[in-house]
Design a protein that fits this description.
The complex is a heterodimer of chains A (413) and B (120).
Chain A (H helix, E strand, L loop, with lengths): L29 H21 L1 H19 L6 H8 L3 H27 L1 H12 L5 E2 L8 H4 L20 H13 L10 H13 L7 E5 L8 H6 L4 E6 L2 H13 L5 E5 L13 E7 L9 H12 E11 L9 H7 L1 H5 L5 H6 L2 H8 L6 E7 L23 E8 L2 H8 L1
Parallel strand pairs in A: 1-4, 2-3, 2-5, 3-4, 5-6
Antiparallel strand pairs in A: 6-8, 7-8
Helix pairs in contact in A: 1-4, 1-7, 3-12, 4-7, 5-10, 7-10, 11-15
Chain B lengths: L7 H5 L14 H34 L4 H6 L4 H18 L1 H12 L4 H10 L1
Helix pairs in contact in B: 2-4
Classes of the chains: A alpha/beta (413), B mainly alpha (120).
The structure holds S-adenosylmethionine (SAM).
S-adenosylmethionine binds next to strand 3 of chain A.
Chain lengths: 413, 120
């Protein structure tokens, strides 16, 4: 029996007011909060109420028309995309979604840029004279980062509006609430919180000496780990200076003083000796690299990982042969509509093979599902299934391995 | 200091590098939808502001702008405001929402029904 309207609990996004502030958070005005409130709920509407229309359009008219024209099923997700891109419903839905992404950027940037002087000054207070922030201007922006502005973020991670500025970080940090409808929690760190929970269960009492976080961006998912392991040394690298300035200031203000942020390219980790780290990880990172860079990064990560150490990558699920082509197509939306040019190829990669080629034994690999850990009193649990916002759901696939764990065990026996 | 000529409003509108996909046959429609969606968003902002003013007035009798800027809804108010935004979205998005229902139902054109009724 359905409930009456008055006793129903509607699925609404948490208010942007619920987002926690830290030392370099942009201060939102009333109306800036309201803009993100609108977008968060609008994104819920796009995935929840309108999203299922895509599958209906496919099943009811796009697929039948395709079968009629070609006399066979579509062979891959690209054929489905080309056919769906002519469908009036999918076109309109995509246009709405693209607008929502563009509005998120405009709304975030206008909030950040009107207070850019204040934000830069606050960041300087946390950054100046600290040896936990190392910027290296000779680090080039890789082509896979500069070809287009990833997820339609004007200026990308490395863009500066003013010399030495942190606006790219501040904009990234504030708007992720809107695109995930609050699914990542108060500090948008639900992924990092989940990692803490996972490792404490997986290896109770284990304490890594040194951890490397590759492509850290604003450090969303490394700060919770650094706080959970206060005696561990954390190194977080990224190629983009503006992001790192913001990340360092943010981490310092949250008390994560055991992270050193370094501007470095993960394809070349030669400044670190073999076996330097007990834990090497990436979170939501690999899909923003390239066909040649990705295996190079995994191989370098393998080299700097100590025996008995953990390699861990969080990503959206890969497109295995078992995944229906329609699902592959809809998961690919961001690749072509939200400037994620490596997304489609990355998710078609067999990560296990990449890791074996980097040096791991196939038997050392593991996979696992990881759901964002958030304060569910206020923030929603990630929706998966029909309501899932593909590409953004706060539910990830983990590819991991304990390096030479077999040998270690045999040696101990 | 931001230089005199740093126009943050213009900078906020910076276009992301990368060719924008075209969703409609007529490129003008892309622009029209972007304006329309921005207005849809701003109307929601106005409604939320009105709601803040009403709640503050109800609670305090008289208010100033600083009260509005610093207003933080409690859990119940936050939920009610979320429901208000949701209702608003369903109302303005009726057209695309009905497209989904149309797909669910795959209805025959009314002309066909009309021909049928003539005969029964
Ligand atoms: C999608 S973000 C990662 C998100 C972040 N790990 C998190 O969990 O919030 C990708 C980041 O990787 C950085 N990046 C891209 N290529 C890189 C490389 N070769 N070496 C280091 N950082 C890189 C970009 O500047 C960007 O900040």
């Amino acid at each position: 029996m359905s409930t009456t309207p008055t006793e129903q609990k509607l699925d609404v996004a948490p208010p942007y007011n619920a987002v926690a502030r830290h030392g370099v958070s942009p201060e939102p005005s009333h109306d800036e909060i309201a803009r993100f409130d609108f977008l968060a709920n609008f994104n819920k509407f796009l995935s929840g109420a309108l999203g299922p229309g895509n599958k209906l359009a496919y099943d009811r008219r796009v697929l039948p028309a395709f079968l009629k024209e070609h006399g066979r099923e579509p062979q891959d997700r690209f054929e489905i995309r080309r056919a769906m891109n002519k469908d009036p419903f999918h076109k309109f839905w995509s246009a709405l979604k693209r607008n929502s992404m563009e509005m998120r950027q405009q709304n975030g940037r206008s909030m950040v840029l009107r207070q850019i002087d204040e934000l830069n000054a606050r960041a300087r207070q946390f950054n100046e004279g600290r040896d936990t922030l190392e910027l290296n201007p000779e680090i080039d922006v890789p082509r896979y980062q500069s070809a287009v502005d990833i997820h339609c973020m004007p200026g990308s991670y490395h863009g500066e509006e003013l010399p030495g500025d942190v606006s790219a970080g501040a904009n990234y940090d504030c708007g992720i609430f809107a695109t995930t409808a609050g699914g990542l929690g108060a500090l948008s760190d639900g992924g990092g919180q989940a990692l803490v929970e996972w490792i404490k269960k997986e290896r109770p009492g284990w304490e890594p000496r040194r951890v490397l976080d590759i492509g850290t961006t604003v450090g969303h998912n490394i700060v919770p780990l650094a706080l959970a392991f206060p005696n561990t040394e954390f190194i977080a690298i990224d190629t983009a200076a503006p992001i790192l300035r913001y990340a360092h200031a943010r981490a310092q203000s949250l008390g994560a003083t055991n992270i050193t942020f370094i501007q470095a390219n993960a394809e070349d980790l030669s400044r670190w000796d073999d076996g330097t780290f007990d834990w090497v990880q990436t979170t939501m990172f690999l899909h923003e690299t390239s066909g040649k860079a990705l295996p190079r990064i995994i191989a370098e990560g393998y080299r700097v990982l100590a025996d008995g150490g953990l390699m861990f990558h969080l990503e959206q699920p890969e497109y295995s042969d078992a995944m229906p082509l329609y699902e592959q197509f809809i998961r690919d939306w961001d690749a072509f509509n939200n400037n994620e040019p490596f997304w489609s190829s990355m998710h078609a990669l067999d990560m296990k093979t990449v890791m074996v080629e980097a040096g791991f034994d196939r038997a050392e690999l593991f996979e696992s599902g990881v759901r964002a850990v958030v304060d569910t009193d206020i923030f929603p649990e990630a929706a998966t299934g029909d309501d899932e916002d593909h590409g953004r759901a706060a539910y990830w696939h983990a590819y991991g391995a304990w390096k030479n764990s077999d040998q270690m065990q045999h040696a101990a026996e | 200091m931001a230089e005199e000529n740093f126009d943050w409003m213009a900078a906020a509108n910076k276009k992301a590098k990368g060719k924008r996909p075209e969703y409609f046959d007529d490129p003008e429609d892309e622009r029209m939808l972007s304006i329309l969606m921005a207005v849809v968003g701003e109307v929601s902002v106005l409604r939320e502001r009105m709601d803040t003013v009403e709640r503050l007035l109800e609670a305090k009798g008289s208010i100033n702008r600083a009260d509005i800027e610093s207003y933080t809804p409690d859990k119940q108010a936050a939920y009610e405001r979320g429901a208000m935004i949701r209702e608003y979205i369903y109302r303005v998005m009726r057209g695309p929402h009905q497209m989904v229902q149309e797909l669910e139902q795959s209805e025959p054109p009314v002309e066909e029904v009309s021909r049928e009724l003539k005969e029964i």
